[in-house]
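Quick one, tokens below. Sequence please?
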């Protein structure tokens, strides 16, 4: 039996709107809405961490940008910091270069109270750099420097297995599935987490220019699809994964992307109350939203069985995403719980 409720961040005229959650109640009943480690609340985020160079001016292409501002980033690392800022417990596992940027990133995690003991430093490859701009049409433009970068060279023997086993939620994206040896390391980490009873959380985070081809991207992204308990996708990602179908067609999404072990499916359909903001930089909005949802889920997985509480969590997550777009960079913009409650109260969306 399935039921739906609305969800997640979509930007429209400065309003952070929502998407749609699909919850498999039968799966929740079988699993008890929890895993075997109900006393844990740790979220372990696996994947890339990098330096974003964000255009100092909005509404221009990368080529037109007059200057760039340095900011730490990388979707899994963004989520780890986001959860910590909200008062949750998080850890990051990944590889950076044995260079000034790599050690800067490790220090940023430490300062943000993210467990960075699972980080590794490569002596031969550099930390990934990404140049980011917000064009006049509202879309982001990316240019990555990683040929190869340290995160691509993460080996299974370098995994912090004990840290993974402690995870209540193991969160990851698709970029770490592109190249070997990182791909095999990613799959091994997922297997360890799954066997340890962790919830597997998957944010597709499609970056086509990083993949060898569209076909390889589709195959790689879908290769772990059926193993994920929680999946977050955007409209564009649904269109890509379904071969060009309508991202708003329920039948298409259910037929092509749903799998029977899925607990949460987050896609852009429907609406919970949005938060009006003046966007400055949309980088990290989705990561902040994911942080908000996972922070709630890590503290109490039973909210998946309570539509009212889940809606409240989604409104809170929308507040997280809204605040992030008001500042430049992802990690520097991640909000605290108090800041989220404040903006929700200002919008009349706080707890009644």
């Amino acid at each position: 039996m399935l039921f739906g409720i609305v969800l997640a961040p979509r930007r429209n005229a400065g309003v952070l709107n929502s998407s749609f959650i699909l919850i498999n109640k039968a799966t929740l009943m079988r699993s008890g809405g929890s895993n075997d480690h109900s006393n844990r609340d740790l979220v372990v985020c696996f994947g890339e961490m990098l330096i974003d160079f964000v255009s100092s001016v909005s509404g221009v292409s990368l080529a037109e940008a007059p200057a760039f501002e340095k900011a730490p980033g990388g979707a899994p690392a963004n989520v780890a910091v986001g959860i910590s800022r909200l008062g949750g417990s998080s850890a990051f596992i990944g590889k950076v270069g044995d260079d000034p940027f790599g050690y800067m990133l490790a220090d940023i995690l430490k300062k943000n109270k993210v467990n960075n003991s699972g980080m590794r430093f490569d002596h031969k490859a550099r930390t990934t750099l990404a140049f980011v701009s917000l064009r006049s049409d509202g879309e982001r433009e990316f240019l990555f420097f990683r040929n190869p970068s340290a995160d691509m060279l993460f080996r299974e023997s370098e995994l912090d297995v004990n840290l993974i086993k402690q995870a209540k939620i193991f969160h990851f994206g698709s970029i770490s599935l592109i190249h070997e040896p990182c791909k095999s390391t990613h799959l091994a980490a997922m297997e360890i987490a799954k066997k340890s009873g962790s919830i597997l959380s998957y944010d597709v985070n499609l970056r086509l220019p990083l993949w060898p081809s569209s076909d390889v991207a589709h195959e790689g992204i879908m290769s772990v699809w059926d193993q994920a308990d929680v999946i977050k996708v955007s409209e564009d990602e649904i269109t890509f994964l379904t071969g060009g179908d309508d991202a708003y067609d329920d039948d298409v999404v259910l037929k092509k992307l749903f799998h029977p072990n899925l607990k949460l499916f987050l896609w852009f359909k429907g609406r919970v109350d949005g938060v009006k903001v003046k966007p400055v930089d949309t980088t990290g909005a989705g990561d902040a939203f994911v942080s908000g949802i996972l922070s709630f889920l890590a503290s109490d997985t039973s909210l998946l069985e309570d539509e009212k509480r889940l809606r409240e969590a989604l409104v809170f997550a929308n507040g997280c995403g809204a605040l992030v777009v008001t500042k430049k960079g992802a990690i520097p913009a991640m909000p605290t719980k108090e800041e989220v409650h404040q903006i929700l109260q200002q919008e009349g969306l706080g707890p009644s």
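The radius of gyration is 19 Å. Residues 1-39 have pLDDT under 50 and may be disordered.
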